[in-house]
Amino acid sequence: MTGTDVVENARILCDDVDETTWEDDTFLAFVNEGVRRLFDEQPVCRLKDNGTLRDYSKAAALTETLLVEDQYLIALTEYVCYRFFDSDSGDSRDKDRADEHLKNFLFFTQGG
Prior knowledge:
The protein is mainly alpha-helical. The chain has 4 helices and no strands. The chain has one domain. It is globular and about 45 Å long.
């Protein structure tokens, strides 16, 4: 999976398909943050096929392959949506949406 896969899904959920609210670079920062959070919340996602652990490194572009398996696409999408709505949580509706996406992230992180 690439960062582009995550962002395309998140833009739909955040109603930012036309890219008017956030630029790709902003989304990229939160995709990287989401991968880091996945490593903390679900350490098993760091395991390579040979049983060794992946070291965390930031993706420099959305087109790069991320360090986690495709099964975490939904979790990362939910994390990016959480950050999107949390950035504007002065509106109580956005705060509620942010909380919902964080809850979903944690659920899907655990394999839900």
